[in-house]
């Protein structure tokens, strides 16, 4: 891999499945997942790595490094992309490689406007999803123009059965539901639509006068089950060959969904739902699931 082989085109089109790669083991997992996703969708695979050139000040000429900082960064990029090329040597579909100067999350968010989906590992070398799950926690899925798939480092492509999507009656959740149906249809996997009914224990501590009884909870659960039947019917109408079901588990939404990521082939979420803070880029449930997921999670932009 030489500098001439690295794409620096600033007006990309048709990037297909876009994978952020930084040479780490989680990034290698994301690369494997992204390659499989590209084959499932019969589309191109684009591998992107980024680099930064620090602004350095030297007291004198003698202290200046023999190799220019930018050239050193460029060599590091070439090495990473050569590793990616080796890992993809058996990939049958079209692959392109890009070296981009800039912040990883920002670069991927910008390129996502030309991609079907972005795939990243759950941790990296300080870039990519290390940013996503850190203090600037919602950087990529919140700003990406296409769905983002976060792959945990221990994930195995052969694990998982159904595609799970969380809904809460919001428009964002409904968009996620149909996106999940498309993913399940592509994978020929069953779709499970889940609406988690939170328990009232915490509310009752602060508002004991609510008197939330089992009868009230049961009635609400039946209402949600009835609503889900309509959603299942809507999905079935659009995807008649897709096996679709709905369920209304009770508990903390984040904990319930994290538990489901263990056995799901893919868990699909919207960036935010019915939370009180509508201006928030990432809802608390989506953020919590991303932090703790044990399987791949796809976040659908609103």
From TrEMBL:
Pfam families: Usp
All copies of domain UspA, residue ranges: 17-152, 163-301
InterPro entries: Rossmann-like_a/b/a_fold, Universal_stress_UspA, UspA
Transmembrane segments: none
Family: Belongs to the universal stress protein A family.
Entry protein name: Universal stress protein
């Amino acid at each position: 891999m030489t500098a001439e082989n690295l794409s620096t085109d600033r007006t990309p089109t048709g990037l297909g499945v876009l994978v952020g790669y930084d040479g780490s083991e989680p990034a290698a997992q994301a690369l494997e997942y992204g390659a499989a996703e590209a084959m499932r969708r019969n589309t191109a695979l684009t591998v992107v790595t980024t680099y930064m050139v620090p602004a350095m000040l030297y007291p004198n000429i003698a202290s200046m490094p023999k190799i220019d900082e930018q050239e050193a960064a460029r060599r590091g990029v070439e090495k990473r992309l050569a590793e990616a090329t080796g890992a993809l040597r058996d990939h049958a579909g079209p692959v392109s490689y890009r070296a981009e100067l800039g912040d990883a999350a920002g670069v991927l968010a910008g390129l996502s406007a030309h991609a079907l989906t972005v795939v990243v590992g759950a941790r990296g070398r300080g870039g990519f999803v290390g940013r996503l799950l850190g203090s600037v926690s919602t950087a990529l899925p919140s700003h990406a123009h296409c769905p983002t798939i976060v792959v945990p480092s221990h994930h195995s492509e052969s694990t998982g059965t159904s595609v799970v999507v969380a809904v809460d009656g919001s428009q964002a959740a409904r968009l996620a539901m149909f996106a999940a149906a498309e993913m399940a249809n592509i994978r020929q996997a069953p779709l499970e639509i889940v609406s988690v009914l939170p328990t009232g224990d915490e509310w009752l501590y602060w508002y004991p006068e609510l008197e939330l009884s089992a009868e009230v909870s049961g009635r609400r659960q039946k209402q949600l089950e009835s609503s889900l039947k309509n959603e299942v019917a809507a999905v079935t109408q659009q995807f008649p060959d897709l096996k679709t079901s709905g369920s209304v588990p009770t508990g903390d939404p984040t904990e319930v969904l994290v538990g489901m990521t263990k056995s799901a082939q893919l868990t699909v979420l919207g960036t935010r739902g019915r939370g009180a803070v509508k201006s928030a880029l990432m809802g608390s449930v989506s953020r919590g699931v991303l932090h703790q997921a044990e399987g791949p999670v796809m976040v659908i932009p609103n």
